[in-house]
């Protein structure tokens, strides 16, 4: 099978999608098709209620995103194409795909489209789009048939993938799949979760179920292009999906949007999104093309080719997908990779705070009183240390009884990080030192569930090591590294365990430079650069400084 080279893709990315045809009259037909379909999308989106969108987890794909996705498919010489869209909406993706095929220099003879859509509001618009697609195909000499399946895609996929003596597997498979899957959390005891388990997948969100099912329905060598949240790339919740997907699919191209809200701005979707192009084959490509744009309608698209093993490390049990969009980011990764230790190597652990306040409601107190101990929330984080008690609506104390003893830790020194960052904070990783000397008179302390805490076999840390570790975690280097591989604002204990770390000696050396007043961000970066990277700090030229200034120039957006 012939596949377009990365060079060809780069050349195509840097010119309009439907530019340069030898027969210019076709351009106007294609543009009219896409404009008509995008008009249908706008009208349909206005008729959809926001609650309905959120219930179905469905947000319609605009024309610019659809065209970008369609462009990612390799221009392969197929005599017949079978195309799957597992959540078609009004058919924007299908229309872009058909327009792209009608732009090929050598057309296929036949296109069969299978479109799944369960929203009755959208099906009428989808029929109009598909009729337009058939008309456009006929005009250039392609036979096009379509089928709208107004039933649940996952349930149907399970039936199609069940082995049968009478089935001819290749006839049930697709050469191409393009989809914007629904983003919807699914309950562990739900019917759809049970169906996905039948496919061999354990996942907590519907979009990865759609991606996995679509991949299984592809023929060998078939292509998948999908736009989805970036959250599947890392973290424990999507480990099973990554292992299943990467075992059968080879990553080909990845596109990032630097602005989190631009891809679906009309629907107020603030998830960080990624477009993925993969081919169904076990053999992986030598490299993966990573492209970046500010938003879907941005003409400036930068590209960067990376070795496949840099994107997915062969020996990584988690199978994280590490998306490195540029050379500055690559330098950040290299600097972090030079640190020699894992958290386990330095004898430390990280856990999530044990106090879930609504479950311990009867033991919460607004202020410290007899038989209570300090209760620490993220709101207590202040300038590298803990401010407690603090004037806040959050409870500041927990009754110390046999019922709460398992929720507490010894009142010793720890490093705490926030599990969620707010829109006022420019950094994803926010760490502080819990200095027990500032909270004398208590045998124990409680850390609320929105906090991660670093400890040594369940006990506290040496204060110097705690200060050094907090400085390292607060560095722009760690923040830039973390942002590269995390498409959300949540900082899980698993994410922190997977960070590279300095040696204990380096942490002590760093911690000795930190006193009762935590240094500023610039001072932290100077110390980390000097003590851990052995580089002379030069403001404005260091890669983390450059990266942080780029990030500061972009508006901060929240999930």
Compile the SSE list and pairings.
Blueprint: H1 6-13, H2 25-47, H3 50-56, H4 63-71, E1 80-85, H5 92-101, E2 110-116, H6 120-140, E3 143-149, H7 153-161, E4 174-179, H8 191-198, H9 206-216, E5 218-229, H10 239-248, E6 249-257, E7 273-280, E8 287-293, E9 302-307, H11 308-311, H12 327-337, E10 349-352, E11 364-365, E12 372-376, E13 381-382, E14 385-386, E15 397-399, E16 408-410, E17 414-418, E18 431-434, E19 444-447, E20 451-455, H13 463-473, H14 476-485, H15 493-497, H16 504-511, H17 521-531, H18 543-553
Parallel strand pairs: 1-2, 1-4, 2-3, 4-5, 6-8, 12-19
Antiparallel strand pairs: 5-7, 6-7, 8-9, 10-20, 11-15, 12-15, 13-14, 16-19, 17-18, 17-20
Keywords:
nine-stranded mixed sheet, alpha/beta, elongated, five-stranded mixed sheet, 559 residues, Adenine-n6-DNA-methyltransferase TaqI, Chain A, domain 2
**Name given to the CATH architecture of the largest domain:** 3-Layer(aba) Sandwich
If you consult CATH, what is the topology of the largest domain? Rossmann fold
| Lateral arrangement of strands in the main beta sheet | 3-2-1-4-5-7-6-8-9
Give a short account of the largest sheet.
9 strands, mixed
Indicate the CATH class of the largest domain.
Answer: Alpha Beta
Structural class: alpha/beta
Percent of residues in helices: 25-40%
Could you give the distance between the termini? 41 Å
Shape: elongated
Task: Tell me the Rg in angstroms.
Answer: 26 Å
């Amino acid at each position: 099978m012939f596949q377009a080279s990365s060079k060809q893709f780069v050349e195509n990315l840097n010119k309009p999608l439907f530019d340069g045809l030898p027969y210019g009259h076709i351009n106007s037909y294609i543009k009219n098709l896409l404009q008509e379909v995008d008009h249908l999308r706008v009208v349909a989106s206005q008729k959809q209620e926001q609650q309905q969108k959120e219930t179905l987890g469905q947000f319609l794909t605009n024309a610019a995103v659809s065209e970008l996705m369609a462009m990612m498919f390799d221009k392969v010489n197929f005599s017949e194409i079978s195309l799957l869209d597992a959540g078609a909406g009004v058919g924007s993706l299908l229309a872009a795909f058909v327009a792209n095929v009608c732009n090929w220099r050598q057309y296929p003879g036949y296109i069969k489209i299978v479109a799944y859509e369960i929203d009755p509001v959208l099906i009428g618009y989808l029929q109009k789009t598909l009729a337009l697609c058939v008309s456009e195909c006929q005009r250039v000499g392609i036979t096009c048939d379509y089928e709208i399946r107004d039933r649940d895609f996952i349930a149907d996929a399970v039936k199609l993938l069940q082995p049968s003596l009478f089935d001819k597997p290749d006839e049930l498979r697709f050469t191409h799949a393009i989809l914007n899957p629904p983003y919807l959390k699914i309950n562990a005891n739900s019917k759809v979760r049970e169906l996905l388990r039948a496919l061999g997948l354990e996942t907590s969100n519907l979009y990865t179920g759609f991606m996995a099912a679509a991949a299984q329905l592809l023929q060998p060598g078939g292509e998948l292009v999908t736009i989805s949240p970036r959250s599947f790339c890392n973290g424990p919740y999507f480990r099973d999906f990554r292992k299943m997907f990467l075992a059968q699919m080879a990553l080909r191209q990845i596109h990032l949007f630097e602005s989190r809200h631009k891809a679906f701005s009309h629907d107020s979707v603030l998830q960080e999104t990624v477009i993925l192009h993969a081919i169904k084959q076990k053999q992986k490509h030598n490299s993966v093309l990573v492209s970046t744009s500010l938003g879907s309608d941005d003409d400036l698209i930068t590209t960067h080719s990376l070795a496949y093993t840099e994107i997915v490390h062969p020996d990584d049990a988690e199978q994280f997908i590490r998306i490195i969009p540029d050379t500055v980011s690559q330098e950040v990764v290299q600097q972090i990779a030079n640190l020699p230790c894992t958290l386990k190597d330095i004898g430390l652990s990280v856990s999530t705070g044990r106090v879930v306040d609504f479950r311990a409601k009867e033991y919460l107190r607004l202020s410290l009183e007899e038989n209570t101990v300090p209760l620490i929330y993220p709101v207590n984080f202040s300038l590298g240390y803990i401010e407690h008690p603090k004037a806040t609506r959050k409870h500041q104390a927990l009754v110390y009884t046999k019922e709460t003893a398992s929720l507490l830790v010894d009142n010793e020194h720890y490093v705490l990080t926030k599990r969620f960052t707010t829109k006022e904070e420019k950094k994803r990783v926010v760490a502080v030192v819990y200095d027990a000397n500032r909270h004398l008179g208590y045998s124990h302390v409680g850390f609320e569930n929105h906090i991660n805490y670093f400890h040594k076999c369940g006990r506290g840390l040496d204060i110097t090591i705690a200060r050094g570790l907090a400085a390292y975690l607060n560095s722009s280097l760690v923040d830039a590294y973390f942002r590269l591989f995390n498409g959300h604002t949540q900082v899980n204990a698993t994410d922190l365990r997977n960070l590279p770390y300095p040696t204990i000696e380096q942490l002590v050396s760093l911690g000795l430079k930190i006193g009762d007043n935590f240094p500023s961000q610039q001072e932290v970066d100077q110390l980390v650069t000097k003590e851990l990277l052995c580089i002379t700090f030069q403001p404005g030229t260091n890669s983390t400084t450059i990266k942080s200034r780029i990030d500061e120039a972009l508006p901060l957006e929240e999930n």
